[in-house]
Amino acid sequence: MMAWTWMVFGFALLATVTGLYLSLRQKRSVESNRGIVPARFAEKVSITAHQKAADYTAAKLRLGSIGSIWGLLLLAIWTVGGGLAWLGDLSASFELSVVWSGVLFMLLFFLIGSLIDLPLELYGTFAIEARFGFNKMTLPLFFSDMAKQFVLMLAIGTPLAWVILTLMQSTGSLWWLYAWLFWTAFMLLMMWGYPTLIAPLFNKFEPLADGEMKSTIEALLKRCGFESNGLFVMDGSKRSSHGNAYFTGLGNAKRIVFFDTLINQLEPIETEAVLAHELGHFHHGHVKKRLAVMVFTTLIGFALLGWLSQQSWFYAGLGITEPSDAAALLLFMLVMPVFTFVLTPLMSYFSRKDEFEADAYAVANSSGEALVSALVKMYEDNASTLTPDPVYSAWHDSHPPAPIRIDHIESLLPKS
After folding, report:
1. Is the pLDDT of residue 64 over 90?
2. What pLDDT score was predicted for residue 61?
3. For 242-343, where are the alpha helices, taking DSSP H only?
4. Smallest Cα–Cα separation from 44: which of 388, 416, 374, 395?
5. Which range, of 34-43, 161-170, 218-227, 294-303, averages the lowest pLDDT?
6. Which end of the chain, N or C, is less surrounded by CB atoms within 10 Å?
7. From CA 386, how far away is CA 380, in angstroms rounded?
8. Using an 8 Å Cβ cutoff, are 192 and 253 in contact?
9. What value, to the nearest 5°, has the Cα angle with vertex 196 and ends 191 and 200?
10. Nearest-angstrom CA–CA distance, 105 and 240
11. DSSP states of 224-250 as a string?
12. pTM of this structure
């Protein structure tokens, strides 16, 4: 029991210290290069924008460091501090059935967790994002979003928890396999239905207006043989001035979404180049590969949980004196990130590899010069640092650092 406790908190401490060390490296890198725009970007990015990016990055790093320390403390409070044990007793006091008592246990955990996280979220949105001119969120909108998320948690989380806990109760030692099959089906359903059922609860989606932008994008889609369920503009400016574009949905429900902020930032040819990059992910099968990885890793996770849930030390070593299926699920969700953090640099490496391939596809099917121009605008408008620490970047960054990425794109351009 004690060995398991020491293992969990040893890894948790290692993960926290590693994160703090990497954040310190990143902070030193951006602050030491704050005074001069890198020569590579000197003609394209102003010193004011460069310094803003450095200060914004440092502020987010400080908040992230506070969050990681707070997360370590919360892990201790929920486990050896008796938080889950108390919550389990509270849920059992309502004298519901075993399954419904477990559902209540899980819902209360997530509700309390969201309230605990609220101060950091408020500070990040209304202090940091507002200080750097990105936040467009109002307090009424913030709490309206929060209320909608709570209703969705009840509407979706309640039956989801009920089904999984019922499977754990009634299907024997292979419950984890049936639960994995159900979870996979649920995730695929959510990926299909999210664009039309959930996303519109939070944002307005308007079809992309006729004009040069739409004609340029439709021509690209035709050249690349890509079919979607429409081109939409999302009112992202309602909450933030950050710009972005993304694909969402599966099968015939696929749609392309542009933030209205991005549409205002970029020229039509630049938007086409950004979209060509996203099409590159589909062309190279990155979306399917990531989906396959997700399905496989969740299978491993459910199998591991199936074994752990039968071990008394799994509960006793983390403060649970009365084992239950709901407690097993919550403990697993709490401790798994402690051990999987070591996989972060590997996942980041493969993600950056995919980005390089998508960039190459964009250069081949659109304009590489326009892609470079669009990226520089997006780096500047989103206050992305141009001088990241290489170790921090290798560990955390899903996209290549700005200088490396643009050098790669320009290496693919026809030589004059």
Report:
1. yes
2. 97
3. 260-265, 268-283, 286-308, 312-316, 325-340
4. 374
5. 218-227
6. C
7. 9
8. yes
9. 115
10. 35
11. HT---S-EEEE-GGGTBS---EEEE-S
12. 0.90
How far is residue 379's CA from residue 371's CA, in Å, rounded to a whole number?
Answer: 12
What pLDDT score does 76 carry? 97
Q: Is the pLDDT at 315 greater than 60, yes or no?
A: yes
* CA distances in angstroms from 164 to 90, 98, 244, listed in the order given: 21, 13, 35
Residues linked to residue 232 through DSSP beta bridges, in sequence order: 207, 257
Return the pLDDT at 247.
Answer: 76
pLDDT at 1: 55
The residue behind tokens 């040893």 is 10
CA distances for 408 relative to 162, 371, 386, 411, angstroms: 49, 12, 15, 5
CB 246, CB 234: distance < 8 Å: no
3-class SS of residue 259: strand
Instruction: Name the E strands within 35-118.
Output: none
Two structure tokens written together for 42: 């000197």
Burial class (CB in 10 A: 0-12, 13-18, 19+), 88: buried
User: Helices 325-340 and 47-78: crossing angle, nearest 10°?
Assistant: 140
